[in-house]
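Listing S7. Sequence submitted for prediction.
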Amino acid sequence: MQRSDFRFFHRLRVRWAEVDMQKIVFNAHYLMYFDTAISDYWRALALPYEEAMQSLGGDLYVRKATIDFRGSARMDDMIDVGMRCVRVGTSSMVFEGGLFRQDQFLVGCELVYVFADPATQTSKPVPQVLRDVLTGYEAGEPMRTVETGSWSALGDGAGALRRAVFIEEQNIPESMEWDEHDAVVLHAVARNRLGQVIATGRLLHAEDGVSHIGRMAVHRNLRSGGHGAAVVRVLEEAAQARGDREVALNAQRSAERFYARLGYAVHGESFEEAGIPHIEMRRALR
């Protein structure tokens, strides 16, 4: 195997608890590495695993796992675990993994999964949409789309995600989440290839040429996957298209570095909103 065989990689560092008396990774831990990588592979497909499987009416069960040892990883090694889907059958799917230290191939893996009814654990055909997601990802196709529209068009999906993130996860009072702006401003949602909303945000009307992006939310299982950034960029494009000169947002301090990477700079002093520290940030559009 070579690194170029893989589109997807999961990076990890070997920990002290994972080496044996020979000071190399204990063999059983390699299966854990590949299992961890395949969990991240689903994130690369923009699929929150549990919700995706519920929507597909099944779940995946390991049928076979084999390991091919060619070399050893050692304490503190930084290793990259490649993963790819190589075949989708009627009810099974085959994944190949490769563990690399830089360009050196150390360990290979084959994982065979069966798509099955979770109640009976009897196999059933892999849904065509899941088949298309897997083959599409390996072919380099995008795993999300972003659309803009009104609350009447996008509010069901956007509202459900905002409820999950702000009200249920962050404990923001429901009375503070919904306001009169939703009905009249532009909304954006990112969807995966199952049609599930995985990120959302809104663009308020400009004041003195300054737009305001708000209610940015990303599915908790899919953060750091570029979905929030995609929503921000689409809203910025909408603001620029209507002639706004600058866009502002009230960032939670925990997300400040995320917005800084998108070109936003701190504007003003920190403040609290709903008990959460925030900072205003701005970015020029022209």
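Caption to Listing S7: primary sequence and predicted structure tokens for the chain studied. The longest helix spans residues 151-169. Helices lie at 28-44, 49-56, 128-138, 151-169, 174-177, 227-241, 256-261.
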